[in-house]
Design a protein that fits this description.
By secondary structure, this protein is α/β, with parallel strands linked by helices. The chain has one domain: 3-Layer(aba) Sandwich (Rossmann fold). It is 29% helix and 17% strand. Strands 1-10-9-6-2-3-5 form a 7-stranded parallel beta sheet, with helices on both faces. Strand 2, helix 2 and strand 3 form a beta-alpha-beta unit. Helix 1 packs across helix 2. The longest helix is centred in the N-terminal third of the chain and has 18 residues. The two termini are 29 Å apart. The model has no long low-confidence stretch (mean pLDDT 96). The chain binds fructose -6-phosphate (F6R). Fructose -6-phosphate binds next to loops.
């Protein structure tokens, strides 16, 4: 039996090297399991990875025709074709360039009338797909993963969430740099949804992430720092550039 150890930490010279290493890892995983189920994040951090990965697919070196994807989260009440939606983000940076089958791209629907039912639907679809093989995560400077914000208690499953002010500010780029236009709520996978992935890769880059990465690895496990829960998982790789690793 594999004894759980601390998260593996891989430090890269810069964001490009980090994206390259993740591209190589994911390409190898797909070669080994073409029907892979990937959990995907949006945000600034994975963009280079998506571009490098999409290039490999365009060159015919990776085949996504049997793969499935589940994104972590989506803003509430935004239609999927709204330019600020995470679905639009994924269409731009990955989905529009690769041969994923439309029916195997999964997203929480922020416009669903009954958000509770929508969250249950999403959890059921993850189970029906066989569970997530590799979950890719970014982390907020406040320690959120997905949109599981710091709180006295965390939600285990997909749920509706009120976004922290700093999270709305961090996402303002999708809304004309105006934080007040960022939706106040979102739907997100829960902490148990994330921890049930067979394998997790957390990406972080830049000096602004150095404190949260140090606390994620060395600090106590607390709902006030949701990323600290990754210490409970048996197969986590934390990929960081030198700036984000500077306090380790
Ligand atoms: C987005 C998500 C968020 C981001 C986090 C970091 O789908 O899950 O948890 O990963 O906010 O965002 P960036 O990469 O923009 O710093």
């Amino acid at each position: 039996m594999k004894v759980p150890g601390p998260p593996r930490i891989s430090v890269f010279r810069d964001e490009d090297a980090m994206a390259q290493a993740l591209t190589t890892r994911i390409a190898a995983a797909i070669a080994a399991n073409p029907a892979i189920v990937l959990g995907l994040a949006t945000g600034r951090t994975p963009i280079r990875f998506y571009h490098q990965f999409a290039s490999l697919v365009e060159q015919g070196r990776v085949d996504l025709s049997q793969a499935s994807t589940f994104n972590l989260d989506e803003f509430l009440a935004l239609p999927c074709d709204h330019p600020g939606s995470f679905r639009s983000f994924m269409d731009t940076h990955l989905f529009g360039r690769v041969n994923l089958a439309a029916e195997r791209i999964h997203f929480l629907d922020g416009t669903a009338r009954d958000t509770e039912q929508e969250c249950e639907r999403y959890e059921r679809e993850i189970v029906a797909a066989g569970g997530i093989d590799i979950q890719i995560l970014g982390v907020g400077t406040n320690g959120h993963i997905g949109f599981n914000e710091p709180a006295p208690a965390l939600e285990p499953r997909a749920h509706r969430v009120t976004l922290a002010q700093e999270t709305r500010e961090a996402n303002a780029g999708l809304f004309g740099n105006d934080p007040s236009r960022v939706p106040t709520e979102a739907l997100s996978m829960g902490m148990a949804t994330i921890l049930h992935a067979r394998s997790i890769v957390l990406l972080a880059s830049g000096a602004s992430k150095s404190v949260v990465i140090e606390r994620a690895v060395r600090g106590p496990i607390t709902p006030e720092l949701p990323v600290s829960f990754l210490q409970l998982h048996h197969d986590v790789e934390i990929m960081v550039d030198e700036a984000a690793a500077s306090r380790l």
